[in-house]
Design goal:
Length: 478
């Protein structure tokens, strides 16, 4: 963990170097354009090559993930300059690393031959990951260059939903038989050029490809080589099915500290493996999606996207906000006479609504997280709701008493203080109820529980808080 800040500073330093090189390049290029000369084209070509050569050398040293970070942080025109300098044999790896929105801009500026060349270098599971963003003609050309086995793997990987284990599955793995000695396995491994990434164990299968157990590499290395694989393999292991929810796999990887795990079909045949890098990517993307959904964004947005594209991405929840704001205004309008008779109500009612919104968002955050971790069952939902109502009631009494005392000291009106306390308790109870029910209802309907939940909670607690506070004040004060 201590190295993380240094790594972050390194990639930010690379970004600063790239930006500075691009600035110099654009400055010199603009000066050349201003100086009319019969040999201007030649001068421009020389200047172009000189100033981009250093940038290309820097890019050649960077990891694909670091280049992806740089591309995401650059405006479109500079992004395309950098992208043109990336060596063609690295295009595919970088396309895998960049965000979906930025990948779209890069692919839009590549011709079909470039896309085919970039995709052909990737494994079948990586091709499946990029396939939704690639033109159909490119996919068809890539498929032609695959073997029969690779075509079947690609078809299989593309058949699963993006949130299924099958979408994370890697087909590159090492299989062994349980009736051979460890010495035979070691000789086999020595003949390989390299091991698949994240290989911490070998998969023991029978002649029908049914998984029998796992052979961890550390057991292979420290055990007598004359012993059979079947005697040292692990028979108690975690496995997944391709149709299984990827969130289940993510939870298992975290719980059991897995590096890789087998993926088997309903008959127990080994069809692939899930690895920690794919699981971490899934967790990161799910977290990003949750954050965007909570803010009311429809999809991931390129930081430097066009104004119109950004507007389209954001308009839906703004429209909902506008409707809820009108509702809140009409609630206030119902009590215009009360506010006119007791002006203090106008100054105090935002306190009730604001605290209610914060409390509701806290509850919603807890429920959405618990749903993501699979911690809420049909039997536990009711006790959870009762618990949250209890928390809201106690918070309401505590903080309602505080704001009630504040109102009394400000306006020397104990009835107003009592109304503030009661309104606070009731609005926090409403916030707790909605904070639990909204995410559960969205989960029941098959929607993302985080999708705009904070917007909905805020709207309800605002309108509800105004109605409760002003209604009580009308009944007891006016």
């Amino acid at each position: 963990m201590s190295d993380q800040p240094d790594l972050r500073r390194n990639v930010e330093a690379y970004l600063e170097q790239v930006v500075e090189m691009l600035r110099r390049y654009e400055l010199v290029e603009s000066l050349v354009h201003r100086q009319a000369s019969p040999r201007q084209d030649l001068v421009e070509t020389v200047v172009h090559r000189q100033h981009l050569a250093g940038l290309q050398q820097l890019l050649d040293r960077l990891h694909p993930a670091d280049i992806a970070y740089v591309l995401e942080a650059l405006p479109l025109d500079q992004r395309l300059v950098v992208w043109d300098l990336v060596k063609a044999d690295r295009d595919g790896d970088i396309l895998l690393e960049v965000s979906d929105a930025v990948r779209e801009t890069l692919i839009a500026n590549m011709d079909e031959d470039e896309l085919v060349a970039a995709t052909e270098q990737l494994d079948t599971d990586e091709i499946a990951y990029l396939a939704p963003d690639l033109p159909e003609d490119v996919i068809l050309d890539v498929v032609k260059g695959l073997s029969t086995e690779e075509r079947e793997q690609l078809r299989s990987a593309m058949s699963y939903a993006s949130d299924a284990v099958g979408a994370l599955m890697d087909f590159e793995m090492i299989e062994v038989r349980e009736d051979v000695t460890l010495e035979v396995v070691l000789r086999y491994l020595r003949r390989l050029h390299q091991l698949p990434d994240h290989t911490d164990q070998l998969f023991v299968v029978d002649r029908d490809e049914r998984l029998q157990g796992l052979l961890p590499l550390h057991r292979l290395l420290v055990t007598d080589p004359d012993i059979l694989v079947g005697e040292v393999m692990v028979r108690d292991y975690s496995s997944f099915q391709p149709e299984q929810d990827a969130q289940d796999a993510a939870s298992a990887f975290e719980r059991y500290d897995l590096v890789s795990a087998p993926v088997v079909d309903v008959e127990g045949r080994l069809v692939g493996r899930a690895t920690i890098n794919a699981v971490l990517d899934f967790i990161r993307e799910a977290k990003d999606s949750e954050i965007l959904s909570a803010g009311g964004l429809q999809e991931e947005e390129d930081l430097f996207a066009s104004v119109w594209k950004s507007v389209r991405n954001r308009w839906s929840w703004l429209a909902i906000n506008l409707v809820t704001a009108f509702v809140a205004s009409r609630v206030i309008g119902l009590f215009e006479d009360s506010i006119g008779q007791l002006v203090a109500l106008a100054a105090l009612m935002p306190i009730i609504a604001g605290i209610g919104g914060n409390s509701g968002n806290q509850t919603t955050t807890m429920i959405v997280r618990a749903l993501a971790l699979g911690q809420i069952t049909r039997d536990s939902a009711r006790p959870l709701l009762i618990k949250e109502i209890g928390v809201a009631a106690l918070n309401g009494l505590i903080w309602g008493s505080v704001v009630g005392l504040f109102a009394f000291l400000m306006y020397r009106n104990w009835q107003l203080g009592a109304v503030m306390t009661a309104a606070m308790v009731l609005n926090l109870l409403l916030a707790a109820l909605m904070g639990v029910l909204i995410p559960l209802a969205m989960e029941k309907l098959g929607r993302d529980p985080a999708m705009g939940s904070s917007v909905m909670i805020t709207a309800i607690t605002d309108s509800g808080g105004f109605f409760i506070f002003l209604g009580l004040a009308t009944l007891f004060l006016v």
